[in-house]
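hey m, so remember when u said the tokens were messed up on ur end? i reran from scratch. heres the input so u can diff it against urs
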Amino acid sequence: MSVLVYTESDQGKLKKAAFEVASYAKEVANQLGTTVTAVTINAEDTAELGTYGVDKVLNVVADNLKDFNAKAYASVVQQAAQQEGAKVVIVSSSADSKTLAPGLAVALQAGYASNVVAAPTSISPFTVKRTAFTNKAFNFTEINSDVKIVGVSNNAFGLVENNGAATTESFSPNLDDSLFGVKVESVDKVTGKVTIADADVVVSAGRGLKGPENWGMVEELADVLGAATACSKPVSDLGWRPHAEHVGQTGKPVASNLYIAIGISGAIQHLAGINASKVKVVINTDPEAPFFKAADYGVVGDAFEVVPALIEKLKEFKANNA
């Protein structure tokens, strides 16, 4: 009766979130006195999961699962959970996992707790700590169903190495044609950049940059920090940046370790989407900007002076500590 964890991959490569949910699953398994089984879909190298506590990997290789399909992926995880007799299933808080989790919960007749930020505080009753009110508060939720699904917030639990080894087995679930009612015609992806979902650091900018021609310094700062670039909603609405970079309540949620906001006033919808980030740094000319109330560190100044100076200092620091 293993703890089952769904570990996501992208183009065959396991995501950082996969290792975080594996680490979380190992902690739950320790509390339950059992092992961890991971299910992967079209992953090319699964051995590293053993480093984060996975004992066994069920790897599905199927051409019809090349593109994400919520119903089909949920069916894969469901069948893996039933085969392993899993009573606890762990998923991430990615957009994909949040899409498949409700259907998976119905199929397994399981209770589902999303936005979980810590290991269970109790096994009996099974109790987890979650964020609430767009990350402004916490609550403790009991899951009383026989099977339990836990959605772990990104960057909440962290990566915990367990120095184990995982065995990998082929897994061939029964995938009925009815699962593929939705067809993916094409997928456009940005390559060569850190994605917002996987980033430890996000550098974001708003209308304070005055125009798309000034985004070079944002990208340079992100490059120095190994960060993803993002923007506020008005910026994407104006067409200065692609909508894929829009973060906030109506865009992509951000739960990075460091979030740098440049020239963003801090509308409540934006703050709701990035509030889960651990450290927030704000650069703005307006000392009354709402964002300063939510910031851990604030710089009142002209971004066109502050950001280039910050870039130079970071480059100098990296050169002296290479």
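this time it looks ok to me. The mean pLDDT is 93. if urs says something different then somethings off w ur setup not the seq
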